[in-house]
């Protein structure tokens, strides 16, 4: 659905963060982009969600040029960001988060999600309906961030570090929910900092290093972790074996 070619983006004209990014998110699966802190993962997701205008290159959605679109146009077309840091509305309750966010009226082919379906996906939220954003645990906030994004009926969900800082059981729940989305026609592109997390979460991994993407690596063959280590070693030649566990 989404194709990106020769894309460059950054925050200052003289210092691009992304250089010549090429990627084709044709398959309705979970894709990850993995790379160390500062590699540009957030910058890539923000560019795709329309928060940042690319300096060069193109973005095609179903063959239509959408380069430089706004977040509103991106969301209307079915591309929604679940941001890092959760960015909830602190004074709104769980129910209010889910009811004020609605799918666009005219997008017949997208899977829409009722509040009840989202509470079934994330039962922890069902017991917190009247709690405000700032009263939720980190895991509950992450679930609500994803649930709120799903309310816009995305075809492509961009998730920035969806398991960051979560306890293992919460992280497992979030991973399970994301892995189930392709079954509903939703493609996922998640940014993660660790090779192992990328291999566990996704079907296809794209490695971002020094502003460039390599891959994709398919995780189904069992070789993903070694392939990722090889790719990441390109930018960290001195990395000792035991350091991988902390990447
Ligand atoms: N708003 C901003 N203004 C200027 N520079 C920025 C801004 N946001 C990020 N950067 C810089 O862009 C580069 C890429 O940052 P980005 O957040 O995209 O990386 P990341 O891979 O998501 O890392 P992390 O996992 O630490 O968030 C870094 O050098 C960062 O300092």
Give a description of the structure.
There is one protein chain. The chain is of the alpha/beta class. It contains nine helices and ten strands. The chain has one domain (2-88, 153-246): P-loop containing nucleotide triphosphate hydrolases (Rossmann fold, 3-Layer(aba) Sandwich). Strands 6-7-8-3-9-10 form a six-stranded mixed β-sheet, sandwiched between helices. The longest helix has 14 residues, at 138-151. It is globular, with a radius of gyration of 18 Å. The relative contact order is 0.18. Adenosine-5'-triphosphate is lined by residues 11, 17, 35, 37-43, 193. Belongs to the ABC transporter superfamily.
Low-confidence stretches: 235-247
- Helix proportion range: 25-40%
- Global outline: globular
Order of helices and strands: EEEHEEHEHHHHEHEHEEH
Work out the radius of gyration: 18 Å
CATH architecture: 3-Layer(aba) Sandwich
How many distinct domains? 1
Spatial order of the strands in the main sheet? 6-7-8-3-9-10
> In percent terms, what proportion of residues is strand?
25-35%
- What's the mean pLDDT score? 86
Question: In terms of topology, how is this protein built?
Answer:
Layout: E1 2-12, E2 15-25, E3 30-34, H1 41-48, E4 56-61, E5 64-65, H2 71-77, E6 79-82, H3 94-100, H4 115-121, H5 123-126, H6 138-151, E7 156-160, H7 168-180, E8 187-192, H8 195-201, E9 204-209, E10 212-218, H9 224-233
Parallel strand pairs: 3-8, 3-9, 6-7, 7-8
Antiparallel strand pairs: 1-2, 1-4, 4-5, 9-10
Helix pairs in contact: 3-6
The structure holds adenosine-5'-triphosphate.
Adenosine-5'-triphosphate is lined by residues 11, 17, 35, 37-43, 193.
């Amino acid at each position: 659905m989404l194709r990106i070619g020769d894309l460059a983006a950054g925050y200052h004209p003289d210092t691009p963060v992304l250089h010549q990014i090429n990627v084709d998110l044709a398959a309705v699966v979970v894709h990850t982009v993995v790379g160390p802190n500062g590699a540009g993962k957030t910058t890539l997701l923000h560019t795709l969600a329309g928060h940042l205008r690319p300096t060069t290159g193109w973005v095609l959605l179903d063959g239509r040029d959408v380069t430089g679109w706004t977040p509103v146009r991106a969301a209307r077309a079915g591309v929604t960001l679940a941001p890092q840091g959760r960015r909830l509305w602190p004074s709104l309750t769980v129910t209010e988060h889910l009811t004020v966010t609605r799918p666009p009226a005219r997008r017949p082919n997208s899977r829409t999600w009722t509040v009840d379906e989202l509470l079934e996906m994330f039962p922890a939220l069902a017991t917190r309906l009247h709690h405000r954003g700032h009263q939720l645990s980190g895991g509950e906030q992450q679930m609500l961030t994803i649930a709120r994004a799903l309310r816009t009926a995305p075809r492509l969900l961009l998730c920035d570090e969806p398991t960051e800082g979560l306890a293992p059981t919460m992280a497992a729940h979030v991973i399970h929910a994301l892995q189930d989305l392709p079954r509903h026609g939703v493609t996922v592109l998640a940014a993660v900092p660790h090779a192992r997390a990328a291999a566990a979460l996704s079907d296809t991994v794209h490695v971002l290093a020094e502003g460039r993407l390599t891959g994709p690596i398919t995780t189904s063959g069992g070789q993903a972790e070694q392939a990722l280590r090889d790719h990441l070693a390109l930018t960290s030649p001195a990395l000792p074996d035991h350091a991988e566990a902390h990447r």
